[in-house]
Amino acid sequence: MSIVTPDGGLTALGYALSILAAVVLVLAAGLLRSKTASGKKLSTKQLIFCAVSLALAFVTSYLRPFKLPFGGSVTLFSMLFICLIGNWYGVKAGIMTGLAYGILQFLQEPYVLSFFQVCCDYILAFGALGLAGIFWKSKNGLVKGYLLGILARGAFHTLGGYLYWMDYMPENFPQSLAALYPIIYNYSYILAEAVLTVIVISLPPVSKALLVVRKTAQEA
């Protein structure tokens, strides 16, 4: 059975194997070294929360209301699921899960120009989402952390853009803004998704539900 459709997407088997890989990556990494921000090792239950969030992030990354021609898209809140882990357990757990997610994103749609380009566009960019954990004890920490995480992700994409993707700038792009092309390109879809996400998680029913989930996720 094939795991890839003729148009390059994933079949049901592909989704199942990808989700299984996500779960195994998080559980394996967590059992080896992951700790919460308080210095305690993640419990099995907490590792499962990380794995489920990673799986949801990967699945929702395929739900794209808008996609740019040279990579990057507005998804159905996929970045939020990685930032949630940082919000629950702190920076270390968030970055660990973000790195695993970056590997999955690379396997999903690999673009390879050099090793460092792969790091910028996948490993470091998605690992940076874990910086959301910096505000894990702060008031409105999820919104603050989410914004920090997605801005940090955009910074790595932008660095890769300046180093490797300038030659792909469309000819009809305004020349007066050419020096800003990587910034405009990468933050256009990242901030578009951010606006939608912040609006949704700021709704009182959603905010309350996320607080309940956070409390449950932090229980040992």
UniProtKB/TrEMBL annotation:
Keywords, in A-Z order: Membrane, Transmembrane, Transmembrane helix
One Pfam family cited in the UniProt record for this chain: Thia_YuaJ
GO molecular function, one term: thiamine transmembrane transporter activity
Transmembrane segments: 12-32, 44-63, 70-91, 111-134, 146-165, 185-206
GO cellular component: plasma membrane
Protein name: Energy-coupled thiamine transporter ThiT
Naturally occurring in which organism (per UniProt): Candidatus Acetatifactor stercoripullorum
